[in-house]
Amino acid sequence: RMVAAVLVGLSLLSLLTCGYLAWGSRRGGAGEAPGNLLGEEPAAGAPGSQPHIIFILADDQGFRDVGYHGSEIRTPTLDKLAAEGVKLENYYVQPMCTPSRSQLITGKYQIHTGLQHSIIRPTQPNCLPLDNVTLPQKLKEVGYSTHMVGKWHLGFYRRECMPTQRGFDSFFGSLLGSGDYYTHFKCDSPGICGYDLYENDNAAWDHDNGIYSTQMYTQKVQQILASHNPRKPIFLYIAYQAVHSPLQAPGRYFEHYRSINNINRRRYAAMLACLDEAINNVTLALRKYGYYENSIIIYSSDNGGQPMAGGSNWPLRGSKGTYWEGGIRAVGFVHSPLLKNKGSVCKELVHITDWFPTLITLAEGQIDEDVQLDGYDVWETISEGRRSPRVDILHNIDPIYTKAKNGSWAAGYGIWNTAIQSAIRVNHWKLLTGNPGYSDWVPPQAFSNAGPNRWHNERVSWSAGKTVWLFNITADPYERVDLSARHPEVVKQLLRRLSQFNKTAVPVRYPPKDPRSNPKLNGGVWGPWFKEDEKKKKSDKSKGANKQKKSKKKKKAN
Predict the structure, then answer these.
(1) Which residues fall within 8 angstroms of residue 163, CB to CB, at 6 or more apart?
(2) At residue 456, does pLDDT exceed 90?
(3) Do the bridges between strand 202-203 and strand 332-335 make them parallel or antiparallel, or are there none, so unpaired?
(4) Cα separation of 262 and 444, whole Å?
């Protein structure tokens, strides 16, 4: 009651976004329309057979950073949703933002879209290749209304790359990988700075009131749900900016975390607390406006946490940006009244590419026969507890990442050059080659000081010349015991599988930065800068010049 009294004194805006409301509460609150109380299902008629799909993607949430994984950070909403749904405890994503998002939206590995190296930078003339059919496009084909709120990070140098051109009816959010949570400005380098908040295809100056992005995105979601007819299927992709750096949060969310000495961890905890409340309010809105009973809510992090920015993957090894388990094993669950085995744990292998075919099938859509997908339909695995159709995951092959100095074809038994960064999972086995990235285990006590303090980390002593690792992930999920010397035949088998995958890879798309991308040349806004007309004019001019040269040569010859 005391907390409720305090909340009454807060601004209306706070109540609309991150104010905490009890499950099934009948009080007014976030996005409420007059005469309709929270928790009350309006008479919207019998739900259709096509479910409402709500996909929530958190940014940089560490494996340990959820209550049911033992975190000191309270996440009551996530804990309750997961407990009443199906927890995915053998669930994998990619180690960075763009790769995970591209695989979610296409159902394809990075090697099959050309995005196998790093992320799409703000100044690069690059985006998810336009010849890839996207998840929202397929859902639109079968009558879904498709909306995206949050972080895009799949490129924007051409107008055709924008979310509204890739299958979304509406888009409200940011195009880049990160930015200020309040001002929505981002500097890619000194002097290269711009505004990054969009409403569809235009800068959202009129919709920006300096609101914290987690709250602002939640408010937008509530508006979408309030205005849509729940009798018609909706796909809502909510890609929150939190808990990616910069580490910013409204002051009141620090209340329970004053005892955390590490400032980055404390800020991170406050950000996650606000995110948890926001997801509570999204769920309440689904109930309020009549979507919940026919909805599927999927929650996922896009990659592992970054310890230097407050995230924790303990007891897993490594961090964001690496192919150790701490970089690619994610928090994930499905919550839905449509699940058959509610309150269960799924330990079958599931990968982020699997959502593409799974959701299209649930939506009664069709997978094009000529499209080679890397994902599998895993709904029966999740809902009914059946075996997963997936037996392997290509975590990635990055041919242009910094080569391991001691890697060689000889170390790869003549099958594979172990200087190349790659990682693959086949059944219980996981193989890594090249330079897998930062490989420490970072225990909770590492956050006791201003660090995380590497003194507390379990440091890895590298064996001279080592470029191949093999682990039995089922028996050794923390990657403590390298079995590559003990099982050379398994190593060879996985190297052959890598080689097979590599034969299907398309060339890497990672162009140099384009000076025309500077927001100063685009009204101070990050946005499309590449003009197709300019390219045509240049090509026409060059063609004309070539014709003139040819005619001159002919005259001389005559």
Answers:
(1) 148, 152, 154, 171, 173
(2) no
(3) unpaired
(4) 11
CA distance 391 to 429: 10
CB 261 within 8 A of CB 448: yes
pLDDT in tens, 186-222: 999 999 999 999 999 999 998 888 899 999 999 999 9
**DSSP letter for each residue of 66-79:** SGGGT-SS--HHHH
- What is the third-level CATH fold of 52-391? Alkaline Phosphatase, subunit A (3.40.720)
pTM score, two decimals?
A: 0.88
Tokens representing 393 are: 């995951």
End-to-end CA distance of the chain: 99
DSSP letters, 444-484, are GGGGSSSS--TTSSB---PPTT--EEEEETTT-TT-----T
Q: Which residues pair with 332 in a beta bridge?
A: 300
Q: CATH 3.40.720.10 region(s) of the chain?
A: 52-391
479-524 confidence digits (pLDDT tens): 999 999 999 999 999 999 999 999 999 999 999 999 999 999 999 9
pLDDT at 148 over 90: yes
pLDDT at 39 exceeding the cut of 60: no
List of residues 6+ apart from 282 with CB closer than 8 A = 54, 56, 218, 221, 222, 238
Pair of tokens at residue 74: 């309270």
Q: Provide the token pair at 238.
A: 């909510």
In this structure, CATH architecture of domain 401-444+459-504: 2-Layer Sandwich (3.30)
Q: Indicate which residues carry an active-site annotation.
A: 97, 153
Range(s) within the chain of domains with CATH label 3.30.1120.10: 401-444+459-504
Across the chain, mean pLDDT equals 88
Model confidence pLDDT, tens digit, residues 357-374: 999 999 999 998 889 999
